Structures are given as C-alpha cells and as structure tokens.
C-alpha cells in the first residue's frame, strides 16, 4: 500500500509541474507593443502631370501633348492644386458654307487636379472662356461655342478614394461652368478628366462657328480661366 501511494503522489506532482510550466509559457507570449504609429502632414509640393493614357506610368512622355510642347504643367504649389490644363488647337480650317463644328487637333487633352490636404472636404473645378478674338481685340468670332464632352475620369490604380464627378462643358456664354466636382470624402489624390479622341479630329472637343462670323487670315484666340475651390458648389450644368 505505501509503495502505491508514493507512486501516485509522484505522478500527481509531475502533472502539476507540467501544467504550471505550460501556463507560464502561455502568459509569457502575451505581450503588447502599442506605440506603432504614423502621422501625416499636407503635401504642398508641385505635382507633375500624369500620363493621361496610363496614370500608373512612372515616366510620362515629355512633352505630354506634342501640339503643346512647352506645357509642362501649371507648377502650382499647395495641398489642393490644378496641375495641368490643355491648350486646345483647331489649326487652320477652310471657311465653311453654313454653321460648322470644328474638332480639336489634340489627341489626349486633359485636366488634372490633386488633393493632398488629407481632410476629404471635397472641391470644385470650374472653367470660364473668353470670347474668340483677334490679337488686338477688334475682330470677334461671334456666337462661337466651345464644348468639352464625354471626358473619362482617371487616377492611379491604387487610389482607394471615391472618384469626383465629371461634367460636360458647353461654353454658350461667358458664364462659369463646373467640369469636376468632388463631394465629401471623395477626390483625394490626383484625378484626371481625359478627352481622348483621334489626332487632328477629336470630336470630344469642338468649336461651333456660325455662318458669316469668321473672316479669313485672322487668328482667333480665346482664354479658358480655370478655378479650383475647396468647398464644393452646386453644379450649374443643365
């Protein structure tokens, strides 16, 4: 009897020791390291234009637009910026009989906006166009209507922000119109509105010239004034 009791006591002590060692090992693995963190500030540097055909391209072509070789971007600084706007070329055209739509020669014109404020309050990009006039302002292309239609909103593939809304522009007056608008929580990072079409015959950007308004051997030029506000505005496009 005594021999059996000793053996049972030895076995019990072994089990208790094993359980105790195992419990200590589990407790020792439960350690937390809490202070792993990152914090961001606004990025106010210049943001170069992206490739309108492939925003993921790390080396966009230079010039971006062969028809506008000196346009390397706006050079704007700040956390909310217009980075690139196009200069639209219609070239030399034969004077038409009747009203006529002329198509842009630019193949991939685009507008680029970047929002690196990191607050997601949205933004509003608008445009206003002047009258098409000759160099000294004595001749006007009366009734001319410039339009941007069917643009495609693009960004880098890794951008997880919601996209801004894009709108057609029909400059049938000297009023201001909205091209892109980012609502609350959207439009973060860089965004392009691209109007790609055929080179020398891009129907997405047109100029309507009314019969009897144009004179030959005169270069008519207009200025598009782009503006970016940090508070979204109601879209006034009908």
Automatic annotation (TrEMBL):
Biased composition (Pro residues): 49-61
Stretches the record annotates as Disordered: 42-61
UniProt domain WxL: residue ranges: 34-232
First and last residue of the signal peptide: 1-23
Annotated source species: Enterococcus haemoperoxidus ATCC BAA-382
Record key words, sorted: Signal
Name listed for the protein in its UniProt record: WxL domain-containing protein
Domain of life from the UniProt record: Bacteria
Residue runs in coiled coils: none
